[in-house]
């Protein structure tokens, strides 16, 4: 910048890019939560991107936006997915911070007031990422629950966390705020090839890596209510049967992140935790009584397991052993530690799973890798 040049101050403290696709059923509740903001929603820049909706989403947003042109932008594009819609919205952002709320969710009435309060209290140039408090909106009961698997990071209240000391996980675009000036400097955008989900976690992790920041602002009082749809129609819920979930996502999402980090130095523990958190859900879902992965395409499994092996080769065994951000069954950790290596492993102990006294039978379980030795049996 030339000497004497004046940098224009951001027009808003916070901008929100809202990728909108076939959410007419949920939009009235989301829009009502915007109108209920205690800070006054006119002080927040809202950019709706209608991503080729085929329901009344565009009509509802367009009608709501009319007369609010001072702080609301509405654009339309052919369907390209959430990442493409967010990238289009990012081009229009004029605020100092940007987040990516989803229009099927709901915001607490004090949401933006708490966000702006935190930004004012914790103004520091080396903190470029903030996390609001993700809670669950149970659609069947209409209750708000603090039951998300990653809720523990909010237990100590609002604070600034150093990820090199406390390697927590932040992967939700809806609850993440990034500093726009750092985003512009990095040139980073959502990778539209990462399908069918994890584009949020990929974007946020790359932002941390490319901006060389490791501070995360935890905003415990800014509550964001994530809707669990009763009909199972959300992208997260429906992605389990898509082939890309088992190939493209692992290759362009997890593996590309780890390789990028490895070029910069040792892979940081926080990134190992990000990948492990998402990867472990594949195995947790498989072990569930009603397995979400049971309908997954079997012809992708060989490639899936090959990719998992590559991913685990870039993650330390210590990261797997100590991972505790959610409950992980013993067998899953053993699988990640030994199931994808050439290392043989003899059973160290046998677990009694069930005793049938009537039949005089016992169900025993043990873990091994490689050929099972029969010596001493």
From TrEMBL:
Domain of life: Bacteria
Domain Glycosyltransferase 2-like span(s) in chain numbering: 15-149
Cited InterPro entries: Glyco_trans_2-like (IPR001173), Glycosyltransf_2 (IPR050834), Nucleotide-diphossugar_trans (IPR029044)
Pfam families assigned: Glycos_transf_2 (PF00535)
Descriptive protein name: Glycosyltransferase 2-like domain-containing protein
């Amino acid at each position: 910048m030339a000497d004497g040049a004046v940098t224009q101050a951001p027009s808003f403290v916070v901008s929100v890019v809202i990728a909108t696709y076939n959410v007419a059923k949920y939009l009235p509740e989301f829009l009502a939560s915007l109108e209920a903001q205690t800070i006054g929603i006119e002080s927040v820049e809202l950019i709706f991107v209608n991503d080729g909706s085929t329901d009344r989403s565009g009509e509802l947003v367009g009608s709501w936006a009319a007369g609010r042109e001072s702080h609301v932008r509405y654009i339309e594009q052919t369907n390209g997915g959430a990442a493409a819609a967010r990238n289009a919205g990012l081009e229009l952002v004029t605020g100092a911070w940007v987040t990516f709320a989803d229009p099927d969710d709901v915001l607490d009435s004090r949401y933006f007031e708490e966000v702006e309060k935190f930004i004012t209290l914790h103004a520091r140039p080396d903190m470029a990422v903030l996390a609001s408090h993700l809670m669950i909106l149970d659609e069947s009961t209409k209750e708000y629950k603090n039951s998300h698997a990653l809720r523990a990071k909010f237990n100590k209240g609002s604070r600034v966390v150093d990820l090199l000391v406390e390697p927590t996980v932040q992967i939700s675009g809806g609850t993440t705020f990034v500093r726009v000036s750092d985003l512009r400097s990095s040139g980073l955008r959502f990778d539209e090839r990462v399908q069918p989900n994890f584009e949020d976690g990929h974007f946020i992790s790359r932002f941390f890596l490319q901006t060389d920041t490791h501070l995360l602002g935890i905003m415990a009082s800014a509550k964001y209510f994530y809707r669990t749809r009763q009909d199972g129609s959300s992208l997260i819920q429906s992605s389990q049967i898509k082939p890309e979930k088992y190939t493209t996502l692992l290759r362009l999402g997890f593996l590309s992140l780890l390789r990028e980090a490895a070029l910069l130095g040792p892979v940081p523990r926080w990134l190992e935790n990000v990948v492990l958190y998402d990867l472990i859900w594949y195995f947790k879902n498989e072990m569930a009584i009603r397995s979400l992965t049971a309908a997954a395409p079997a012809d992708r499994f060989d490639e899936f397991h090959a990719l998992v092996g590559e991913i685990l080769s870039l993650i330390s065994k210590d990261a797997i052993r100590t991972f505790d951000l959610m409950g992980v069954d013993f067998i899953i950790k053993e699988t990640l530690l030994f199931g994808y290596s050439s290392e043989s492993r003899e059973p160290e102990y046998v677990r009694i799973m069930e005793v049938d006294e009537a039949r005089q039978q016992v169900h025993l379980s043990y873990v091994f890798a490689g050929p099972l030795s029969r010596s001493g049996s």
